[in-house]
Amino acid sequence: MKKTILTILLVQFASFGYSQNSNKKPSYVQADYLYGNLIAHSPDSNAYLQGHPEGFILSWNQKYYGGENWESSYNYPDFGISMSYQDYKSDILGDLYALYGHYNFYLLNRKKENQLILRTGFGISYNTNPYNKVNNNKNIAFGSALGSSTYFKLYFQRENIVDKLGLNAGILFIHASNANVKAPNNGINTWAATIGLNYQLDENPAPFELIPNTINENLPEPIKINLVLRGGVNESEYIGSGQRGFAVFSAYADKKVGRNSAIQIGSDVYYSPFLEDYYKISNIKNPDKRTSFSNIRIGGFIGYEQFVNKFSVEGQIGYYLVSDFDYQTKVYEALALKRYFNKKWFVALRLKVHGADAETVEFGGGIRF
């Protein structure tokens, strides 16, 4: 069943990414070998850090030369879909498969032969050997097979060294976890070196011309109001305490401070039933604690949004203004990926954490008006 669900998600994700770029543009593929180290989160991590992970990343990339005005603002990036495989060299951790949507941001003159590129990717993952109370109770990194993954890759690329074949090499950081959908959820961070090849898919690649932005998008924009409803399931940090549904309503204002960025201020209202399980168990372990509480928390936050075509990335830091109990800390952080429709409606995926500890991954949508 889990493999069937994963297959459906992968197909939908790939179709969604391809549909954004169905018009004909130059494209190329890459194949990279990776070898690196796992980063220990805690002393408990030493139980499963048994070797150096290795694997590969395969990617398809489509080039942008300025057909839309946003492209020149980011030095004409590539959009692509990538798939990674990691063998953790650990009987406890197993292997990890992941599928991502990514952007390649060029850090040098776009028309140079030698390029320094930063890739950012976000997607879904599948772990082959998650936590099991009886058979695999040392895998505190992955509480479930399905999870999320992000990666950053800084690399050198040279194209067309031999005909359509080129070379790429760099460094890579990959994070994978299930965002506390099910405990345990320590997650895994991988640092690795990569080396690989790139191949141009066009039969007769022509010299490209960069099209500059022709529209003044720095015109003042009024303050916008955002209303967002998100939800999902999560579990407290106590293994086996049970998965609960949750809901989050957010209301905030934003003001653009440039062509592609905005600052935010607003509030989150959390309905978090998992707190009931957490505090019941916590009270058993610490009888002097109180037993009455509310599952409602209200937080105030400030944030920043960066717009990239129809997508945007949000970063927020908040503080609980109303909360009966301190679950971990009063300060929380959030990172969100949004996809806009008609510049007004959007769907969003948000990760909420306290420091390095994830609490929820939230799915939902809203309106900006």
Overall description:
The protein is mainly β. It is 9% helix and 53% strand. The protein has helices at residues 2-19, 69-73, 274-285, and strands at 27-39, 54-63, 78-87, 95-106, 114-127, 146-162, 165-177, 188-200, 224-234, 244-256, 261-271, 296-308, 311-322, 331-341, 345-354, 357-368. A hairpin with a 2-residue loop joins strand 15 (345-354) and strand 16 (357-368). The longest helix is centred in the first third of the chain and has 18 residues, at 2-19. It starts with a helix and ends with a strand. Mean pLDDT is 88; it is low at 1-22.
Observed structural traits:
mainly beta; Porin; 2 domains; 8-stranded antiparallel barrel; 3 helices; about 10% helix
Q: Report the uncertain regions.
A: 1-22
Instruction: Tell me the domain tally.
Output: 2
β-strand amount: over 45%
Supply the CATH class of the largest domain: Mainly Beta
Concise summary:
With 369 residues, the protein is mostly beta strands. The chain has helices spanning 2-19, 69-73, 274-285, and strands spanning 27-39, 54-63, 78-87, 95-106, 114-127, 146-162, 165-177, 188-200, 224-234, 244-256, 261-271, 296-308, 311-322, 331-341, 345-354, 357-368.
Set down the secondary structure blueprint.
Blueprint: H1 2-19, E1 27-39, E2 54-63, H2 69-73, E3 78-87, E4 95-106, E5 114-127, E6 146-162, E7 165-177, E8 188-200, E9 224-234, E10 244-256, E11 261-271, H3 274-285, E12 296-308, E13 311-322, E14 331-341, E15 345-354, E16 357-368
Antiparallel strand pairs: 1-2, 1-8, 2-3, 3-4, 4-5, 5-6, 6-7, 7-8, 9-10, 9-16, 10-11, 11-12, 12-13, 13-14, 14-15, 15-16
